């Protein structure tokens, strides 16, 4: 969530930061807006300078004194009579502000002797008046002004009451991008406690003021009194907790994990106070009524943003227990706290089990025929293990990938390489069995089975308390899909096409293995699960005369990035440029980029890219997360994203050579990033991916994957990393021909995951497992598998659910179907480009412009069905998806 300037001390309190040392004014720049601070007699004063509607510079002044003396220079400058109001304005012309700074500062210093009171709510309102138009002030003028302020502050004497303890806490430095190099995990708790205390004080005062207004029936509550105010209150804590959560996924360590787990209940409790506030709920209802009365059926985007934000907030509060009282409310909050703890524990167990697994191979015969890239990855993993165990001085600098040893780890790139390319069945079986039994009863200390049952029971209890039949119904209350039945209907529609195709595919793979695999395979009735991927790859190589190893040299990560950026420049009219070194990062592999609107030249967004697998401290998978969201409430108009992948790392001087699937994954996550970064919404709660229904949020990401089969796009990056030669025409055509290979099995697998998730959260009673002969979660898994993957039933030992983080440690509970739901829309959206003609550059640009102005710009400010209809002119159809997957 977008942060607020967390170091803003509340008026009437001692400045908790270094500003309390200053008896004369000093200046800080908060996103191009100057904030002036000074302190006298343990009173903090502040002025925020901004341009008003008359194109002058206005200053809001605040302190804890009681009045503004008539003789005050600021009173004279303002040409307003002194009052005891909580707010005063000083209008100063740009000329006076920029060129007569010294004289103006003399006025400020004389003013310190007398001021007026400002309430917390007024301070929050004060913050929202920051006007971005002040950015037109030149950099040189800013520098001169800041220098003058510093010069005037050199005689300041330290206050005995000052404290610098928080100035060094990087979790509290929120005026810009996170200070990753300075973050100390042990300082998370002090930061959270500081921010929580302030949040609770501010919210208590806001509740009182809102309650007074609602009770008086004066109707004087509008949108700006509520939504932006709450947003500003929550952002300092949201910013800090967001950074901590990000690091917990990409730089997990014992101290951070301990601190994160210790503070999570406090965060849940604090957010529950908002979601269950009667005063806030009633105020939002008043705002909603006023918006409907004043702007009935308005299609103005600014109005729609506000309506959606209020609508989402009211729904979220309803689902958050605002209607509960007494013991029910207490129990509901206990459930939320417990679910948060279980989710974190579930994820940690999976990470620990993945990190702990390793299999070292010394015999070169076992890896015979394995691609060089896989052997290099495993040899490098062994080298890194030795470095960590013995120290860099005691081991060689490099490890020969053709000699070994080779260390197979539990992370996804290593696992996929084993399943796809390692001929040895015994090793494949060991690696496969570990994967499907990760965090299960096989290791009692990291067993997620009890957590699964408890999570399911608690979610069912929560749903019942809110009046829903089951948790799936609760989940769908905030999604596009109208019902469980509608989800099942779409699932079965696709399954009717996919299941026959999957059966035929597996039969072909099995026949090929029996023919080519020798006596060992010839006598098998069926392939084991650890055989299927291996022989599927061999069949694909045979059918298309193309191996993954042949394509890797053409997919060097730096070139793929350049090509991907060229694509979005072409279709969305934006430019992406490297900005490495301009901000701190959490790992040397992390890169930083800036996004500029090509038409205006304006810097509109930035993003971090963490591309490689690090099994020791980084969780598996790929994801996009919000670093900073766009929001006018906190004066943030440059959205910042985290893009995280777990691709194959570079080996020696060889860059990361990607598999084609890794290329698709990168495009997928960048699609999420584009929706976050290119939003035109300015209400933080509905900007970017915020407020977008969960089953629509995958539209841009899956849409971007389609461009990996577009010839101009691919030839923009598919160049041999050594020679620079473009990918041969025949190789590209073979890649395209492979697109629908295995589509039946892949579709069935995704449908199986989605329906297993839905079944567990809708029809299954987790308490039944406690009864003798009752249905277990493994029975449910088997039952759903028999319907959607009858050709490839899971083994009795399969404990896949124990590592199904999407639904037990992520946001996809009763929502995994969203991938297929959104895939229908994404395929239909890409079909618009196909219909325009992918070779017609001008038409592609025009369709891209419309896609940017709708899907990427509107964020959660407009309902997703309306967004799609604005782009496509109609509701989505599954026809394009079936055609793209070869299942039509």
UniProtKB/TrEMBL annotation:
This is oligopeptidase A. One of its GO terms (biological process) is proteolysis. Residues 189-216 form a coiled coil. One of its GO terms (cellular component) is cytosol. It comes from Amphora coffeiformis. Residues 192-329 form the Oligopeptidase A N-terminal domain. Residues 418-886 form the Peptidase M3A/M3B catalytic domain. InterPro entries: M3A_DCP, MetalloPept_cat_dom_sf, Neurolysin/TOP_dom2, OpdA_N, Pept_M3A_M3B, Pept_M3A_M3B_dom. It catalyses: Hydrolysis of oligopeptides, with broad specificity. Gly or Ala commonly occur as P1 or P1' residues, but more distant residues are also important, as is shown by the fact that Z-Gly-Pro-Gly-|-Gly-Pro-Ala is cleaved, but not Z-(Gly)(5). Binds 1 zinc ion. Its cofactor is Zn(2+). Belongs to the peptidase M3 family. GO terms for molecular function: metal ion binding; metalloendopeptidase activity. Keywords: Coiled coil, Hydrolase, Metal-binding, Metalloprotease, Protease, Zinc. It comes from the Eukaryota. Its EC number is 3.4.24.70. It holds the Pfam family Peptidase_M3.
């Amino acid at each position: 969530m977008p942060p607020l300037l967390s170091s803003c001390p509340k008026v009437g309190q001692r400045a908790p930061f270094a500003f309390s040392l200053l008896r004369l004014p000093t200046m800080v720049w908060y996103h191009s807006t100057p904030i002036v601070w000074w302190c006298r007699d343990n009173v903090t004063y502040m002025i925020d300078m901004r341009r008003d509607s008359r194109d002058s510079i206005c200053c809001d002044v605040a302190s804890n004194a009681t009045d503004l003396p008539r003789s005050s220079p600021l009173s004279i400058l303002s040409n307003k009579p002194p009052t005891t109001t909580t707010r005063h304005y000083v209008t100063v012309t740009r000329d006076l502000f920029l060129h007569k700074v010294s004289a103006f500062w003399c006025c400020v210093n004389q003013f310190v002797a007398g001021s007026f009171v400002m309430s917390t709510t007024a301070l929050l309102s004060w913050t929202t008046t920051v006007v971005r138009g002040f950015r037109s002030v030149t950099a040189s003028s800013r520098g001169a002004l800041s220098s003058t302020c510093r010069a005037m502050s050199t005689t300041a004497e330290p206050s005995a009451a000052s404290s610098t303890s928080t100035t060094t806490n990087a979790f509290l430095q929120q005026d810009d991008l996170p200070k990753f190099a300075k973050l100390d995990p042990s300082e998370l708790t002090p930061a959270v406690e500081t921010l929580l205390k302030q949040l609770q004080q501010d919210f208590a005062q806001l509740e009182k003021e809102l309650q007074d207004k609602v009770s008086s029936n004066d109707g004087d509550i509008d949108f700006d009194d509520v939504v932006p105010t709450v947003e500003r209150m929550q952002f300092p804590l949201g910013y800090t907790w967001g950074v901590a959560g990000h690091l917990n996924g990409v730089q997990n360590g014992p101290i951070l994990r301990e601190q994160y787990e210790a503070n999570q209940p406090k965060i849940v409790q604090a957010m529950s106070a908002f979601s269950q506030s009667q005063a806030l709920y009633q105020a939002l209802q008043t705002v909603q009524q006023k918006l409907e009365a004043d702007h009935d059926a308005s299609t103005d985007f600014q109005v729609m943003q506000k309506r959606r934000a209020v609508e989402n907030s009211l729904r979220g509060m309803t689902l958050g227990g605002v209607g509960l009282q007494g013991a029910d409310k207490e129990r509901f909050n206990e459930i939320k706290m417990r679910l948060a703890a279980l989710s974190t524990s579930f994820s940690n167990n999976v990470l620990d089990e993945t990190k702990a697994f390793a299999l070292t191979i010394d015999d070169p015969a076992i890896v015979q025929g394995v691609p060089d890239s896989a052997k290099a990855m495993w040899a490098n993993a062994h080298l890194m293990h030795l470095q960590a165990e013995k120290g860099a001085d005691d081991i060689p600098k490099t490890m020969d990938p053709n000699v070994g040893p080779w260390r197979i780890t539990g992370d996804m790139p290593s696992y996929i390489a084993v399943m796809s390319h390692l001929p040895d069945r015994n090793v494949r079986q060991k690696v496969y069995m570990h994967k499907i039994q990760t965090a299960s009863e096989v290791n009692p200390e990291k067993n997620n089975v009890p957590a699964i049952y408890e999570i399911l029971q608690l979610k069912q209890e929560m749903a019942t308390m809110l009046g829903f039949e089951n948790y799936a119904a609760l989940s769908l209350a905030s999604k596009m899909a109208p019902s469980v039945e509608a989800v099942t209907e779409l699932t079965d529609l696709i399954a009717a096409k996919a299941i026959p195709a999957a059966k035929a595919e597996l039969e072909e793979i099995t026949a090929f293995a029996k023919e080519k695999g020798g006596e060992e395979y010839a006598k098998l009735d069926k392939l084991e699960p650890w055989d299927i991927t291996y022989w599927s790859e061999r069949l694909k190589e045979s059918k298309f005369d193309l191996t993954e190893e042949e394509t890797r040299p053409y997919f060097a990560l730096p070139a793929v990035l350049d090509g991907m950026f060229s694509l979005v420049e072409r279709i969305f009219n934006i430019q992406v440029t490297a900005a490495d070194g301009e901000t701190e990062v959490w790992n040397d592999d992390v890169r930083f980029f800036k996004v500029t609107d090509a038409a205006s030249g304006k810097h509109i967004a930035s993003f971090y890219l963490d591309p490689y697998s690090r099994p020791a401290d980084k969780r598996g998978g790929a994801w996009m997360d919000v670093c900073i969201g766009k929001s006018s409430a906190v004066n943030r108009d440059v959205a910042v994203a985290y893009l995280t992948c777990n691709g194959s790392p570079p080996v020696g001087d060889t860059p990361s050579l990607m598999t084609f699937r890794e290329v698709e994954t990168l495009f997928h996550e960048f699609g999420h990033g584009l929706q976050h970064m290119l939003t035109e919404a300015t209400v933080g709660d509905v900007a970017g991916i915020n407020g977008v229904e969960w089953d629509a949020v995958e539209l841009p990401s899956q849409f971007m994957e389609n461009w990996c089969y577009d010839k101009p796009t691919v030839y923009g990056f598919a160049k041999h990393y050594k020679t620079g030669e473009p990918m041969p025409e025949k190789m590209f055509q073979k890649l395209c021909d492979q697109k629908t290979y295995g589509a039946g099995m892949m579709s069935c697998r995704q449908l199986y995951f989605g329906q297993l998730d839905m079944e567990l959260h809708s029809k299954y009673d987790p308490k039944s497992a406690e009864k003798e002969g009752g249905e277990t979660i493994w029975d449910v898994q088997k039952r759903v598998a028999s319907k959607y993957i009858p050709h490839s039933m899971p083994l009795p030992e399969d404990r896949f659910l124990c590592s199904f983080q999407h639904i037990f440690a992520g946001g996809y509970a009763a929502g995994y179907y969203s991938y297929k739901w959104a895939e229908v829309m994404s395929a239909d959206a890409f079909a618009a480009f196909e219909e325009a003609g992918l070779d017609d550059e001008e038409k592609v640009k025009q369709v891209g412009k419309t896609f940017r102005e709708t899907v990427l710009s509107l964020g959660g400010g407009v309902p997703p069905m309306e967004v799609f209809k604005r782009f496509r002119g109609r509701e989505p159809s599954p026809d394009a998806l079936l055609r793209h997957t070869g299942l039509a």
